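Researcher: We plan to redesign the surface later, but first we want a full-length starting point. Tokens attached.
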């Protein structure tokens, strides 16, 4: 009987876990790839706040391209940098690409131009830079 009473809090906890709505990187990636940026933003923002490099890179990509959020190169750089600091290869590529585009933009416009004018600029894939 004592063992049963000790197990009740554990069982209640296990039943509540799905209701908490844990963030899910694959769900965010799937939503992003299907143009559902609100769902991707919701999933990745939660993960990024917990220090998840994939979520941070995903947010950076959304901010640099202005997908589901207002385009903000400063926010993009922040999220790419946080993920790159964790040795997340795609974020390292994206941060390097960001810096390259920023340098080119500053040279050609005297610092007054837009960093990204085309939403299809060459940034790394959401998940993997290399496949196969």
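Model: Full-length starting sequence:
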């Amino acid at each position: 009987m004592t063992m049963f009473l000790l197990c009740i809090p554990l069982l209640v906890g296990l039943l509540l876990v799905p209701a908490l709505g844990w963030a899910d990187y694959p769900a965010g990636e799937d939503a992003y790839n299907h143009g559902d940026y609100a769902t991707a933003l919701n999933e990745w923002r939660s993960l990024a706040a917990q220090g998840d490099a994939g979520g941070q890179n995903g947010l950076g990509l959304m901010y640099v391209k202005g997908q589901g959020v207002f385009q903000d190169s400063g926010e993009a750089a922040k999220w790419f940098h946080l993920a790159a600091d964790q040795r997340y290869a795609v974020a390292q590529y994206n941060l390097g690409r960001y810096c390259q585009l920023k340098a080119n933009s500053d040279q050609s416009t005297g610092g007054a131009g837009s960093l990204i004018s085309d939403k299809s600029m060459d940034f790394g894939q959401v998940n993997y830079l290399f496949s196969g």
